[in-house]
């Protein structure tokens, strides 16, 4: 399956389901008001799924540390990306640079 198609499927399906769990007022506001761990009033956007994936070509991995490091980068990028998803190619990362 191609990475773009996979990302599109993962982004579109959960978004519709999650937003249906909020009231019309909360959907209009884009989230809910509540308290954080320190009991401070704050605004929380909709719950969302973030996932990073790493495409590994045969022979591209220099070891498990190489793959896990790129997976951590993918996860961080996914959390920062509007879609909540990031797909990276292992071959584009030099394990000595990260």
Describe this structure in words.
This protein folds into 2 domains: about 1-45, no CATH class; about 50-98, no CATH class. The chain contains 3 helices and 4 strands, in the order ααβββαβ. The protein has helices spanning about 5-20, 25-30, 65-80; strands at about 30-35, 40-45, 50-55, 85-90. Strand 1 (about 30-35) and strand 2 (about 40-45) form a beta hairpin. The longest helix has 17 residues, at about 5-20. The protein is elongated and about 50 Å long. The model has no long low-confidence stretch (mean pLDDT about 85). It comes from Caballeronia ptereochthonis.
What would a concise description of this structure say?
It comes from Caballeronia ptereochthonis. This protein has 98 residues and is α+β, with helices and mostly antiparallel strands.
In percent terms, what proportion of residues is strand? 15-25%
Give a count of the beta strands, DSSP E runs of length 2 or more.
Answer: 4
Shape: elongated
Order of helices and strands: HHEEEHE
Radius of gyration: 17 Å
Poorly predicted regions are none
Average pLDDT taken over every residue: 83
